[in-house]
# Entry
Amino acid sequence: MTQSTCIVSKLSLEFSSKTLFKNLQLNLAKQQLSACIGRNGLGKSLILQILHFQSVHDIPYEGEVSWQMPHAYLSQFSRLQADTIANALGVDPLYQAFQRIESGIGRFEDFEMTEHQWHLPLLWQQQLLKANLPTQLDYPISCLSEGQKTKLALCALFVKTDHYLLLDEPSNHLDYASRLWLIDCLKAHSSGALIVTHDRALLQHAAHIYALNEHGMSSFCGSYTDYTQQLNLQNSALERHVL
# Structure
């Protein structure tokens, strides 16, 4: 039986001038890549924000969001808030402690902090190498391209192996090779993820599709190709019924 990582019920979002969606239902599964699709302006990115932040005061939503595990979020626009790779990965205090110990000036608290953590520097290096990024953790973010910044922001999430990931347009600014890297990382991320994307190649690797339109949200098992085939069958059946 598939384990649920997040159950969303009766999710509605209404502004004074417009209703974006009403009574949406989602059941996100652990160890599964799911995707939310639909045309721009329907509120897909807002759904991710609600799922992650929940108590967002400037988003007047209603409904229940129940998480069963930790989760992490990648915004479509604000990818990184850091000045070095170590800061972007969220490991700077630990990295500085390792640096002081290796330089022979380690303090008691450095050894305390790094206890049982000596495997981490190698994991950081491996993650950065796989992403074809600089491996110096003090490397400045300002020297990275937009594609490299996106990959680094994704690396910071993929190292959180126990977190379910909410990714808004994760393949933006990525070249072909980097998109293949992203697909491999998503397949290897055992906690699962929900992506919002228009990237058809990426959608082919989804195991579940949530299709958002003006009338609500439909749920389909399988990849984007499976979704389009099921949708065509439904439309054909509806046409026959009308005739």
About this structure: The longest strand covers residues 4-14.
